[in-house]
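Go through this chain.

——
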Amino acid sequence: MTKKYLIAPGPTPVPEEVLLEMAKPVMHHRNAQFSAIFAEAREGLKPVFGTKQDVLILLSSGTAAMEAALINTMSAGDRVLVINAGKFGERFTMIAKAYGLVVDELVYEWGRVARAEDVKAYLDRHPDTKAVAVQGSETSTTVYHPIRELAEVVRGYKDTILIVDGITSVGVHETRMDEWGIDILITGSQKALMLPPGLAFIALSEKAWAMTKKSNLPKFYLDLTVELKNQKQDTTAWTPGVNLIYGLKAVVKMLKEEGYDNVYKRHTVCAEATRKGLQALGMRLLAKDTPANSATGFFVPEGVNATAVEDYLREKVGVTLASGQDDIKGKAIRVSHLGYHSYFDTIIALSAIEMALKVFGCDIKLGAGVAAAEAVIAAAFPAK
């Protein structure tokens, strides 16, 4: 028997108590019993988003919520600025172009983060811009964009909204949607919220809701105005993911009981321990600027095929990590710290990486990465 460890940045492991909740019998969704569960789950998302606004639950992937953010606020021919610093920044561009929006990009080298001064300079040149779209954590490059600073810039332009894909940053990095001035915030179920894929979550500011009244892009299933009307009555416009909602109720309870500050500390410590461990092995990190606490990417040594290492770990050892994407496929590996991940999951990941690199002929000292990670974790939890 080989025990399996899922340490990739989505889907992430699901806690046993959440799995048990989701295993309960399906109930009809148009009744008071389900409405009570739905309302509790939705209310529990507000502190995770840092908002008093309604957080809408969609039966979809996170990409659908990215699409919903644009088609509910934009009109044909509107100008959108996309921060393109990786695979998921590119996705915002593809969605916007599919709906005929005028798209400009601020393109950054993979591993770099957006700069608030670049966004301000662009908006000064193009004051007709209706939206700035950015990732919180760019999962493909494992960086964390300066969301608070970007929000401060965009807030100064009364006709422009900031859309943040927080799919791998919400629940990882403290995010204060209302206080910072984020206009649309998105996340998905299979990341820090410790659920299987299938749900997306989206919240809009008053500024963004005002724009929905003028939007003329086509929409039906993803019409957020229709969804808001229904969800304010503790139901959904369309058939919900009933058992996923059961699980969501359990998740928000778990997060509250752990304490949000402790949730963010856990992600921070695991991420820092992983980075220190990889650097102790002589690995070069993928993030050149501010690293994300959701996942850490690193380049394998020259002459080693990262995909072969990843396959070996998954098939022979039972540890699933994630490949690099596009130009760094075969060159880099990404390690998750998301969601149902704690300190000794980090140790397992690093020990597996050490062993695999040694098997593939790398000149590393076994135990060096683990020792460096343990030092970080131990320092976070002194005896007194």
